[in-house]
Structure formats: C-alpha cells, structure tokens
Amino acid sequence: MKAPGIRTAIAGAFLLGLLHPTQAEAGGQRFEVTVTNLTRGQTFTPILVASHQQGVRLFALGQPASEPLEIVAEAGDTAPLAAALDSMPEVMDVTVANGVLPPGQSATLFVETRGHFDHLSVVAMLIPTNDGFFAVNGVEGPTGNKILRILSPAYDAGTEANDEQCAHIPGPPTICSGEGFNLSRDGAEWYVHIHGGIHGGASLQPSAADWRNPVAEITIRRIQ
Predict the structure, then answer these.
(1) Residue 16 falls inside a structural domain
(2) What is the DSSP annotation of the chain?
(3) 66-93 burial string, b = 16+ CB within 10 Å, else e?
(4) How far apart are CA 93 and CA 113, in angstroms?
(5) CA–centroid distance for 213 within its chain
(6) Residue 23 lies in a domain
(7) Is 183 part of any domain?
(8) Of the four listed, 60, 61, 71, 161, which is most buried by Cβ atoms within 10 Å?
C-alpha cells in the first residue's frame, strides 16, 4: 500500500565521504551512480538514488510536487520519499548518501538492478534555496560497458515562496539554519518548474549563491 497522498510521480537527496553501497547479491548487477556538484556556491543535501521499472517518475514539470518531493526540496530530508519508493513493487532498490556534497566535489552511490528494473532516479536539495533541487527523473540505465552522462538543471518544487530568507532555509549554519519543511504553500507557484536562481534582496547574495545551469553532472554505468 502506498502512503496516503503519494502519487505515481513522487520524488526525492546528500553526500560526501564514506558512502555505503547497497547490499547487492554476489555476482549481481549494480548501477554505479556518480554525482558531481557543478555549482560555485550551492551544497547538495543527502542524495537519494533508486532503481526501478519504467514509468516511475519523481515529478512532472508543470504539475504539483508530491509531499515526499516537497520534503526533499524544502528540508533535504529523503526519509519519506525513500519509504514511499520502497513500498512500490515497481522499485527494486533505494540508497541514500551519508552527508552533504559541497561545490566542486563528487561522490558515488550504488543500487541493484536486474531485468525490467533498469531505470534510475536521483534527487537532492540545493542549499541555500527555499525549495530547489536537482534530479534524474526515471531514465533508462546504460547496458554493457556504456556510460550514461546526464546534466541536471536546478528545479523548483513550487511548494514554497522564494523569499531567500534564512528563516525559511535549512543549514548549514554558516549560511542559513532556518526552517525546512512546512505545510504552507502561500506565495508558491504550486507546480514544478526550472528554478529562476538567486536574486538577492534578502539573506542570500547572488554573487555567492547563484548559478547557471546545469548544476549537477550524473554519470551512470552498470557493474558486476
């Protein structure tokens, strides 16, 4: 049974340092997923990677975000999304990284794959933003020795007003340490779209926190 209010299009990621591969069976197939933070002033919260069948989507552009995706995009908390994905028979494996991924750094995670469970999704919040995230949204993984390279723009979940006030943006404390997820969508766009960036005038300065797309490079390969 899916959790209440969770649609087929559901969403949700963070990492640096030691990452724990999933418990793949000996000799089994896995996808190796490497994420590189291409921004100058944005940190990625814990990154979530999932392997699944075709048709599972984290979100649809122009449509409202699910609550699990909203929680990722506003608070960097992947637990509700991971639980929602784990409950779906179309999903094979979900893994989440241990820590944040600073600008200019890369980290690698692994998920199991076999048969029709040959698609992948990846997601994490950008901080400091109100509800910004990057994502890979249900792509087919590579076969054989091929390597798939994807460049992700920054997306806006459309669930919180982009007021750029630290009171509404979670850590790290050296930048902001405010509120993460809340149920209010007052002033928000109510649909997922390409993020407009940081404009300044509140707690954030474009010179430090703005970006030009893409914000993340994701490379995927299949390994034994």
Answers:
(1) no
(2) -PPTT--SB-------S------PPTT-EEEEEEEEE--SS-EE---EEEEE-TT-BS--TTSPPPHHHHHHHHH---HHHHHHHHT-TTEEEEEE-SS-B-TT-EEEEEEEEBTTB-EEEEEEEEESSSSEEEEEEEEEPP-TT-EEEEEE--EE-SSS-----GGGS---TTT-------S--TT--SS-EE------SSS--HHHH---S--EEEEEEEE-
(3) bbbbbbbbbbbbbebbbebbeebeebbb
(4) 8
(5) 15
(6) no
(7) yes
(8) 71
CATH number, domain with residue 109: 2.60.40.2130
Structural domain of 122: 29-223
pLDDT tens digits for the chain (224 residues)? 333 333 333 333 333 332 334 433 344 699 999 999 999 999 999 999 999 999 999 999 999 999 999 999 999 999 999 999 999 999 999 999 999 999 999 999 999 999 999 999 999 999 999 999 999 999 999 999 999 999 999 999 999 999 999 888 987 766 787 767 676 777 778 899 999 999 997 888 999 999 999 999 999 999 98
Asked whether the bond before 172 is cis by omega within 30 degrees of 0, the reply is: yes
Q: Does residue 2 lie within any of the structural domains?
A: no
Name the pTM for this structure. 0.84
Tokens 């950008």 label which residue?
126
